[in-house]
Amino acid sequence: MRAKVTVLGLGPMGVALAGAFLAAGHPTTVWNRSPGRGEALVEDGAREEPTAAAAVMASPVVVVCLASYDAVEEVLTPLVPQLRGRTVVNLSSGSPVQAREVAALVERAAADYLDGVILTTPAGVGIPTSMLLYGGPADSFAAHRDTVSALGDPLHVGTDPALPSVYDTALLSQLWGTLTGWLHAVALIGADGPGGGVSAQAYTEIADRWMGSVRAFMNAYAPHIDAGRYPGEEFDLDLHLRTMEVLSHASELRGVRSGLPEVFEGLARRAVEAGHGGDSYARLVEFIRAGSPV
Length: 294
What we know:
Blueprint: E1 5-8, H1 12-23, E2 28-31, H2 39-43, E3 47-48, H3 52-57, E4 61-64, H4 69-76, H5 80-83, E5 87-90, H6 96-108, E6 112-118, E7 131-135, H7 138-148, E8 153-158, H8 163-190, H9 200-227, H10 237-253, H11 260-276
Parallel strand pairs: 1-2, 1-4, 2-3, 4-5, 5-6, 7-8
Antiparallel strand pairs: 6-7
């Protein structure tokens, strides 16, 4: 039999989590502070409890998905006796500091704690390729990996419960950077002028293939950053800067104003003026980190 699971919190994401557990055959108990949210889940086979304490007692694995970490602490603090010996998997959104605070609360209850982030929308929960990141004891993750696999692809990023939150914000930074760069590109290539008038769909078909090259750059540059050495090889910062100047000029001519070319060029120019023109693009991380050269 599949492991029993309790889901605390039935907002859109909590409902999706409980539904994925049910679809995977896990006996699922649900609870929500506002009653009535679990009716559809009950029709699909879930058991709804009127109190959080009763819901926690129903399962060895307790998945929490509430609006904030403050709400998580408010709900879990009175449940210390019921949490003993269980594993709490917190999939609420919050900061790294809050993750450690909730971890300490759960550990004082003599329970195991895994903090996690869901890298998809509610519609993506339960799809095998959707990523969920977990931090906490490796043995706890290993013990419950099959259970949380019902939600998507589970990845253990380390024993520190704060790590998933840090990954979350870092990955969102990459998401917004990529999407904003794509929007700038769509505006640039769709504007009037020679070579313009291209639709977003037509451009994106080419851009999608280009992402393979972007991934190759990231994988090539990651060892440079970890080693603190930045060999320029065929595509050094001098060449990057000249190309950025072309982008800035083209964007100005077409009236495309996202501010991105100025950011790119400003970073690269600082590095080149500091004597790093022969280095790889990865050298710019030194000008982005806290305490970087002005």
